[in-house]
Amino acid sequence: MRAVTSRRREEVERLVQAHQASVRGFLAYSGCPASLLDDLVQDVFLSVLASPFEDRGEISTAAFLRTVARHLLIKALARARRETLLEDPVSAESSWVEFERGDGGAGYLAALRECLAKASPRTQEVLRLRYAATLPQAQVADRTGLTEAGVKSILVRGRKALREC
């Protein structure tokens, strides 16, 4: 393994700070299982560190990192002998670019927060526990006093309402 220069390390640290949230969001949007998400985000930046990389601006760099992330996701899913959750990689790429356009997705996230505020307190709690706290449905059920089927039903209806909103 070759030694990493301090300049190279600083370059990768800057890339991580600038693009980690976007890479993580892209992988989650692309269907990456939560159990793989942190590892794949780390692997994206390790692969940049291990290979020659030329920074060609924010947009090109972001596109390059998404490409690396997509390939790592596909390889990880194939390795796990699962069907690829990324049905249409081109569509996922274009949708993500649209999501981040201009404000890095802040407008979409603000709209999502407004829609979430309109949901019932129970729906908000279930969605928060499942997605913000990343608890499995069984633990969400335990914490809320619902059955697992009840949690699943609230999640399905809640996601549908958020999509429609």
Describe the structure.
The chain is mostly helical. The chain has helices spanning 6-29, 34-50, 58-79, 89-100, 106-118, 121-132, 137-144, 148-164. It is globular, with a radius of gyration of 18 Å. The N and C termini lie far apart (51 Å).
Report how far apart the termini are.
51 Å
The major pleated sheet works out as: none
User: How would you spell out the order of helices and strands?
Assistant: HHHHHHHH
Strand residue percentage: under 5%
Count of separate DSSP helical elements: 8
Using the CA coordinates, give the radius of gyration.
Answer: 18 Å
Average pLDDT, all residues:
83
Supply the helix-strand structural class.
Answer: mainly alpha
Low-confidence spans: none
Which geometry do the CA atoms define?
globular
Number of strands: 0
Q: Report the helical percentage.
A: over 70%
Question: What key phrases describe this protein's structure?
Answer:
165 residues; mainly alpha; 8 helices; 0% strand
Put the structure in a nutshell.
This protein has 165 residues and is mainly α. Helices cover 76% and strands 0% of the residues. The mean pLDDT is 83.
